[in-house]
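[Structure tokenization] protein backbone as discrete codes

[Encoding] learned vocabulary of local backbone shapes

[Begin record] amino acids and matching fold tokens:

___
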Amino acid sequence: LKPSGWWTAPHAVTVALDGGIMQLHIGIFSAALLSLLACADAKKVSVKEVVFDSAVADIQWLSADQKTVLVQTSKGRLYRSTNGGDTWTDISDQLKGEGSENKGLIVVDQLVKNPTDVNTVLVAGTQRNHYLSTNGGSTWRNVRHKATIHTWLFHKTRPKWALVSTWSEACEAKKTKSKKSGGDDDDEDEDDNGPCTHMLYITKDLGKTFTLVTTYVVQFSWGDPSKNQQDRIYFTHFRSKKGDQPKLYMWSQHVDFAYSDNSGRSITKLVGHGNKFLISHGFIFVAKLKDATAQTVNLVCSNDGGNNFRQVQLPQEIDEKSYTVLDTSEGAVMIHVHHGSKEAPANVGNVYISDEQGVKYTLSLPNNVRSSSGECEFDKVLSLEGVYMANFKDSPRSDGDSKKDVVNSKTAETNKEADKLEQAASSGTEVDKRRSPKAKAKDESVIRTVISFDKGGVWSYLKPPRVDSLGKQIECPPDRCWLHLHGITNFHNYAPFYSTENAIGIIMGTGNVGPYLRFEPDQTNTYLSRDGGLTWVEAHKGAFIYEFGDHGGLLVMADDIRKTKQVVFSWNEGQSWYDFELSDFPLEVDNIVTEPNATSTKFLLYGTRGDTGVMYHLDFEALGQPLCKGVWAADSVSSDYETWMPSDGKGADKCMLGRQVTYTRRKQTSECFNGEKFERPTTRKNCACTEENFECEMGFTRKVGSTECKFADDGTIPVPPTCTSSDYYHVVGHRKVIGDSCEGGWQPSKIAVPCPASSKLSRGAMSVLGTIFMVATIMGGVTVLSRSEKFKGIFANYGFDSFGGVQYSTIGGKMPETGLESCGTRLDAEFIDGDQDDFDDDAPQLIGYTGGGDRDRDRRRGGGGGADEGGDRDRDRDRERERSRDYDRRDRDRDRDRDRGRDQERDRDRRDTDRNRERERSRDRERGRDRDSDRYRDRGRDRGGPRSLADELRADRGPDYSDGRAEDSGSTADRRGAEADSEPKRRRKSKWDSQDSLDGVPDWLRDQFEQPKPPPGPKLGPGQRSIKIPQAMVGKVLGKMGATVHEMQDQTRTDIKINQDTKEAGYSYAIVTSSSNNEEDLNTAERLIHEKIGGPMVAGITAAGGTLMPAKEIKVDDVCVGGLIGRGGEHIKFMTNEVGCRIQVDQTKDGNPATVTVGPGTPEQIAKAEKLVSDKVADILASRAKAAAAKAAAAKAAAAKAAEAAKAAAAVALPASAYAVNEMVLMNSGEFAGNNAQILAIEDEDITVLINGTDVVVASPSELIKCGGGAAAEAAPEAAAEEAAPAAADPEALASELAAKREELRQLIAKPENATPFLNRGRLVRMKDAASADLGWGILLTASKATAQQWAVKVFVSPADKGQIRTLPLGRLQAISKVRTNVAEGLGETADSIPTLLGTLNKVKNHKKFSKEGIPELDPVTEMNIKAGAPAELAAAIADLEGQLRELGHSVA
């Protein structure tokens, strides 16, 4: 043993600056050697080294206090420590073999610890010697067994019971015979006569006696205590008990699954052909042979202790050795299924999640990465409920990559095969055996890491850190930028993602940021999450091996891929990292471990240096950190603890698995240790259900990052017998995640699933097909008959009898005779003023076909002649002629309209001509009115007189039409002539006039003059809302790379899409969808969008939440603007948050009333905003009036008091040297004129006085009166009166009052009960010195009680850019900012840290945001929550005084 003694850790401090990391190595210098040694002794880690004969193979912790440790080396030596690994003893010589052949030291093959008795441990040797200890390895006794122990399995509840498996003597003999030719022939013959079998024994006295249970065993395990079957023995065995036991190379039809309740005296078969099994958390899984030729199996499951087994329902068959039970710890089964063949398997499989019975499985994650031995890159975050991490293969990057991990041939070593079979049953699920893997190297392909916060219901990628551990921006494609971590299959190259039960929320892993997982060492770094995998930071460059201690409060790691002599650790959960050297000689680190509970501050780091094993004992208690306090007062200033609720980042309620879980953990900034006895308080509260609380039912799948369950169409959902090919049937597509405790909220509805195409046809489809067939048959028959000579005549002339009375005319016989007839009668109809209405009756009339033609045909057939028949013919002929004219006129109108529609150029010319005509009519209207009046008067006279253009057109149409219209036309003309004489005629509006309607525009021209209708808005479904956005503001709503809209979605738990179908109209729509149909979420999203675009685009937008009223303006007095806005806008912000709509103040600055705009918003919001503004204005005006009255009264009172006091005291003004400390004086002028004061300090001409025992000010000698009389006393009343007289309107008086109010508010803020909750390390504060000189903003280092009544603060300030660390009374605090920097512990203790602090302070003050707007201060009302002292009234008064000074043209600092 070679202990290296104590080693002092250098003081390496990490300071976070604007997202970066700056490493500072602060040396400790002092003039005195004692000071140097004192500083060196302050922080140190105890490091002790021990060298073993070879590498460490196994470590086991024994005893109740976990102080006893056993170490087995690769060469079979055994070492023991009784103090947690501080010192070691080689106890191999205590294990000596018995008998003539085995008197030497045995070679330790394995260590087996008793789970029910922490002091009992078995040492199995490679020979037939085995030892057992019941006192933690202090003493040992030999276990007498005739064969070499293969597997020793302790009972789960009885400490002295165990199952033991051995191979028979024949197996050992045959194995020895194959290796050497010599030996005892008699023994060999005896062994050869017996079969080689695997035998199972039971011992109930820790190996003193053994009883045979059965032979030809494959696997075995104890029963489940939760089912009261702890004494039951489950096993698989070969049915035939003859000959040598075959190896289970492939699925066998000769193996059964059975059990025994009486140590093998009777055996009960449970599952025939059951080859492999696993018992875990109340479930029994058995792989049952399905087809020996195809080598396929069925997985059967029982959750009632083996009474009933049901076949697991998976979307695909399980092939070969193709399943791994991942986890059963939370009431559901998560299983990995490999669907490939054994000869050429892909290194991926699918992860499925079961229902409560473990029978129905649904796909959770496809292509989960696995190794050839069945280990899967899938692990549970042990400290949290329902959080899992996994790696899946997206798609190969090259063809050759997928061929690297090929399963070895079937001729692998048979003993290793048997070992794997036994260990599969005895060691538990994949999560249970995660700490001791037997992993192989894996191929490099497109592998990505995902995380689920709801037990595999929804998977999402890991969020990458924005900067690396050196503070540099991480560059990667924004759309493919994620964090990827290595899993268990690559364990021997990189440490896998890792968590422990007691380190709440802490996960570490090695990997890289980018599109996929990289395997190059220079691309691999170490990452840390302290919020359960939601966010990550880069802890260190390079790949490290890590371990947690002190309930997660202490993280220790070392380089994992290179030789190193350095250890890196953090005692504040990764906020800062420290490093120290182990020794002068590097080693290859294999692992870092601590006791199993991860609560200790002592670690064991072991590795190799050459051929020897090296172990270091690291004791961090030597750092001298105290135990943390205040666990039951978490989140308070005095407590070292805080509360934390894990979250998936999708909602503000922080619900996971349907409940809010609140943990208590140590603050990162607390310098203390939790201690091994720390018990973490935890509270739980159920939440309302959302879609994330449900996973997909069997037959439905989800994509990574999606919550939508889509129909998989994999044949797992039974089709109803009534289903037809064109129909749908509804099934349940969701089921609540097992273990989820949410209540109410979103509940899944059934999903419509289309019936398979192979289903039977529906009745409707059958009827349609039948009708088509009948029609086709009839048409085919008619076609055949029409071509027949016998029936051709019938079909050729059928139907023409009904047209017997139709009159036919010669083609070309109706050619137009005149130009007027050619152009049509409505050429100028639109421009005739008075005659337009005469053509109302010219519209085509419906013609009735009532059978008149049939009657005429009957007469002709009857041979009738005579006058009646001739008259009838004439009337019919006239009627047909008139119809023919109507048809011709209608045809001409259609042709004209068609020509106009095709020739737009001619229409434009006509419109120009019409405009000219309209202008000419406007000029000649008076002259035209007389002519029109004459025309109206003459219309009733003889037809030979002047006629209108309409009459002329009627005359050209023929006598029949003209005669029929004469009376009507005349009467109309008379009537219109009379109307014209009584009142001026109103001109008909033309289509070129501005008009609201287009009644006079022809249909074919309407599209030229109608205003375009706005495009229709988007159609909305339930839980949706549309918000109109100006097209120019779409980019502002989306934000850079969609950041703004994503932030809105996260805040409101809604989905926001931008519909730009209407962008040509100058606007788009934001479609807001709430999956839970939550009106509050929709209202919040609408408000956020309106804030981005400055209010709704159009007033009166109606949504599901109501109608938004337009903005309303309120006029207020201009002097009220300052008080209405408040200091830093605090009042206007408060009112805006209170009413939920925008309130904006527009100051005219010219003495006119200011405008306050409220809205847009709901009527309730507008009314509430009006009331708040009105009330605030009334308060301001009342305050101003009250202040003015009080100011005048105070001035008079001060003057009177000063005069009276001056006369009474007969004081004399003297220089500063005439005064003494603690002397009582009288204030002569200023705000405190006439008040008694006590001198506290005198510095040159500055005298610090305490006025009335409450206010401390610095005054000059001229402001004081020394009690004793003099000329100054006589002049004091007059001076005071003169000073007080103009105070009401004097800017200097206003400024003085403003300073007094500010000082009053400052003193209120500086009170310990108000300030100390916000005096955190690193916060920016503004201080003043003893002379009241402003020191500017500084960094707070510490705040503590200097005396029982007074607090002191230690700050770093930089007056005149010269950094200095000063300790000042809390009373000199000027302001507390909202900004807080990350200052590492140790900074500020020495002068060497001043440059670093100065750089940090300048970086904050010069930040582009603060350099323009200034450092933001905490609001005393809304943020500091100060109740006493009326801070709101003081702030209002300050704002009022500032407004008055601005009105007078004075600037306000």
